[in-house]
Amino acid sequence: MKYRYAMVCSSNQNRSMEAHSLLKKQGFDVSSYGTGAHVKLPGPSLREPNVYDFGTPYKQMFDDLRRKDPELYKRNGILPMLKRNLSVKLAPQRWQDNAADGSFDIVLTFEEKVFDMVVEDLHSRDQVLMKTVLIINLEVKDNHEEAAIGARLALDLCQAIEDAESWEESIDDIIVAFENKHRRKLLYSISFY
Fold first, then answer.
1. Alpha-carbon span 73 to 50, nearest angstrom
2. 140: left (phi over 0), alpha (psi -120 to 50) or beta
3. pLDDT exceeds cutoff 90 at 117
4. What residues are paired with 166 via a beta bridge?
5. Residue 150's CB: how many other CB atoms inside 10 A?
6. In angstroms, what CA-CA distances link 52 with 88, 111, 166?
7. pLDDT band at residue 124, thresholds of 50, 70 and 90?
8. Within 10 A of 45 (CB to CB), how many other CB atoms are there?
9. pLDDT digit string (tens) for 133-191?
10. Model confidence over 6-18: pLDDT tens digits?
11. How far apart are CA 102 and CA 96, in angstroms?
């Protein structure tokens, strides 16, 4: 694979990790991040989410929720999701704190608010390398079923980008072909490192 990819959602738990897991299995050079202030997972009610700091190991979250209510978190898919996550990497990472991870060629977000935060963050950084980065938003609802569909769509899109001679030359054609094939609108922007 010729490009370096970043998958980004709000908490680096569901959508970005489903895509990270799938692309990693397919041999892509991929990382994943969240843009939120904290990592939020569903709790016993909407007003009682489980909140963790970025960097808290997935294993620690898994053990914590299994201790709190194993039936609830198994039934709502959170424990299986965390189990998948800990097989991919140690802990959720925050996009805004990732400068030490180096530059990416392609950043794929799964929510417009996250896309805006990534674009804003890249524009606020010192652009010393003058290396282009393509940021694409593929809107995906934050549930397990949609995350699985979104990951397959992300793989299809990243494969099309890989297959192109140069994404800079053919991004408009790649986007139009993807939108026509999958009936999903994409948003994209170009920034620099």
1. 11
2. beta
3. yes
4. none
5. 26
6. 19, 21, 40
7. very high
8. 7
9. 999 999 999 999 999 999 999 999 999 999 999 999 999 999 999 999 999 999 999 99
10. 999 999 999 999 9
11. 12
Q: What are the DSSP E strand ranges found in the chain?
A: 4-9, 29-34, 39-41, 50-52, 106-109, 132-138, 186-192
Helix axes 15-25, 144-163, angle to 10 degrees: 50
Note the pLDDT tens digit of each residue in 20-40.
999 999 999 999 999 999 999
Quote the tokens at residue 14: 């569901």
Q: Shortest CA distance to 168 belongs to which of 136, 137, 190, 192?
A: 190
Q: Taking the mean position of all CA atoms in its chain, how far away is CA 174?
A: 20
Contact 32, 93 (CB under 8 A): yes
- In the numeric block, which tokens belong to residue 76? 């709502």
Give the DSSP per-residue string, 33-54: EE-SSSEEE--SSTT--EEE-T
Structure token pair of residue 118? 């990534």
